[in-house]
Amino acid sequence: METKKKSFCTNIGGQAVIEGVMMRGPEKTATSIRKPDGEIITAINDFEPISKKIKFLKWPIIRGSVNFFESMTIGVKALMLSAEYYDIEEEDEKQSKFDIWVEKVFGEKLKGVVIAFSIILSLCLSIGLFILFPAFITNLFGIQSNSIKTLTEGAIKLIIFFGYLIGISQMKDIKRVFEYHGAEHKTIHCYESGDELTVENAKKHSRLHPRCGTSFLFIVLIISIVLFLAVPNSASLSWGLRSLYKIILLPLVAGLAYESIKFTGRHNNAFTRFISAPGMLLQYITTKEPDEKQLEVAIASLLAVRPEKKETAVW
Fold it and tell me: Is the pLDDT reported for residue 252 higher than 70?
């Protein structure tokens, strides 16, 4: 009788980049990229979460916000690395005066400055689109009921979120990134199933994964709606103050969303499948079926970060 393989859950996550995949393991991060000449290169970096140095950052809820910012930093670095290989091919020899000035002012610190600026800009755009704008709209229409105001703001957030995903999914370059996103998920599924990491094995697995960032963002939106419904008398505040308390509560929202994703990723039952279903359905937009070459890249990245000992099976 053939013994059914037991699936196990890992702390390995990833992100699609330009013509590549970044994988993050317990101790390392790796970004594998297929260069224009077809060669796969892999950049490996040691990774030590800040929670190893500051123990209370491992506490539930708190660890979610910490992980979110660490993931953003690692993700931006991986994107910058992948972009470098394609910028080189089209780089204009003549630098603008602004580029020369920036390099002169920041020198070796330039990359860190760019990463910090990218993260701050992303956060500002997210706060503007998903907090300030909905609050401004409901204030403009003079809605006084906290529940109606919160639900209306929630509907605006979801419309923006879905509209953004559908819009970018039509772009040719983004479709390539979404294919690598699918390759990332298939490869992690393959590893977690106990199969040997080969292209043929990875092909068999789903491109949807319960611990995906798309699911995380969707859960963030849902939790924010539920949480803000519970805040009494907030509808009477000005849209600026209402937005401020929402910004203050963001770490709590991110923490709760992280715990939810972590729980559903480590348990496979009717309840977890039910609560993760909307996020999984969204992945039909943000992932596409990869080809064999894209799976090769994802496998190269995961091989570079996988721990020597597999974690305990929990599915």
Answer: yes
Report the alpha-carbon distance of residue 65 to residue 76 in Å, rounded.
17
In the β-sheet with 13-17, what is the strand arrangement from edge to edge?
13-17, 20-24, 28-34, 40-46
Measured at the alpha carbon of residue 140, what is the angle toward residues 139 and 144, in degrees to the nearest 5? 40
pLDDT (tens digit per residue) in 135-173:
899 888 888 888 898 999 999 999 999 999 999 999 988
Instruction: Tell me: pLDDT of 3 over 80.
Output: no
The length of the chain, given as a count of residues: 315
Whole-angstrom Cα distance, residue 31 to residue 301?
A: 6
Share of the chain above pLDDT 70, in %: 84
Contact at 8 Å (CB) between 71 and 212? no
- Report the alpha-carbon distance of residue 39 to residue 300 in Å, rounded: 12
Q: Taking residues 224-240, report their average pLDDT.
A: 77
Q: How far apart are CA 292 and CA 295, in angstroms?
A: 5
E-strand stretches of 150-281: none
H or E element that contains 314: none
Looking from the CA of 31 toward its CB, the CA atoms found within 13 Å total: 23
**DSSP letter, residue 3:** P
C-alpha–C-alpha distance, residues 46 and 308, integer Å: 15
Q: What is the pLDDT of residue 232?
A: 64
Alpha helices in the chain (DSSP H): 62-90, 97-106, 110-127, 133-140, 146-169, 172-192, 199-203, 213-229, 239-248, 250-266, 270-286, 292-305
